[in-house]
Amino acid sequence: MTEGATANSGEAALRRTGGRYVEPGGEFTRDQRYIATRITADGGDGWPVEPGRYRLAVSRACPWANRLVIVRRLLGLEGVLSMAIAGPTHDRRSWSFDLDPGGRDPVLDIERLAEAYFARFPGYDRGITVPAIIDVPTGQVVTNDFGQMSLDLSTQWTAYHRDGAPELYPQRLRDEIDEVNGVVFADVNNGVYRCGFAGSQSAYDRAYRRLFDRLDWLSDRLAERRYLVGETITEADVRLFTTLVRFDPVYHGHFKCNRSKLTEMPVLWAYARDLFQTPGFGDTIDFDHIKRHYYEVHGDLNPTGIVPLGPDLANWLTPHGRGELGGRPFGDGTAPPPPPPAERVDPAHTPLR
Length: 353
What we know:
The chain folds into two domains: 11-160, Glutaredoxin, CATH 3.40.30; 175-349, Glutathione S-transferase Yfyf (Class Pi), Chain A, domain 2. It is built from eleven helices and four strands. It has helices spanning 11-17, 63-75, 114-120, 146-155, 174-189, 191-196, 201-222, 235-244, 247-254, 266-276, 287-297; strands spanning 54-59, 82-86, 132-135, 140-143. The longest helix has 22 residues, at 201-222. The chain is globular. The model is unreliable at 1-18 (pLDDT under 50). One of its GO terms (cellular component) is cytoplasm. It comes from Salinispora tropica (strain ATCC BAA-916 / DSM 44818 / JCM 13857 / NBRC 105044 / CNB-440).
């Protein structure tokens, strides 16, 4: 399955537009060019699944990378697929590992993610995006096709899933999951960007209506069912959650998605809190990194670079009541253990303390 390329990575767009995210007069069009190489159990593309061989590069700010962080946590792949965490902002050149001592990733020994891209593709002229998976022995990027990457963690890395790992992409539900993912990507995941990066009033109006029409559809769908597809958490819930959790801190104001806050949409707000309070979801969220990324990087939308102090985060921990709808988060499986100490979110950046 293929989706659009990461908008909030933005390097290709920045080079193309001289530092602007918004092209005056037009609609936002997502770059859909990927490194489509896959890491598979049979190594069909030349990159077989091997524990310890690869490193997942992410930023906690990025919703697309956040998907991979959640899936990796739920499946218990921390011990076989290590993770490099870039800082929340980037410049025109690349994401950088400025959170690490000396500003270098300790495993890849690089300062910027671009180094891994250029190691495989000298002169690479597309977006240096997260998430990406890097081959540690060669230092080369393998793939940044984030839509396929999360599905492959579920279907190709099964030999290394933890005991009790949930089925996030069960065979019997894949058609329905794919269908839901398709409309959620087009209208919600990408829809907030279509609003925020619209270059004309008419483009914004269309994107705004499309976004909230789909959110209303999702509210109706989730009013009497706990999860989007089936009775357990699936890939579809992961993909919707990473947009919802950013809605009030960023998209409502910064991207002008302001018909309603998430907290004013009762069904979706309860659904988002249910997932946030589920191990593997809320414990991956760094609200400070999320806000700093959008408000500091998108200089044409927020030229002062001022990062809002709100919203209050304590309400993420209030009761959601979704358990009354039934369903079991992990099916016949179990919740993941707490994240490794080195991967825990700064307690000051999340209400989960």
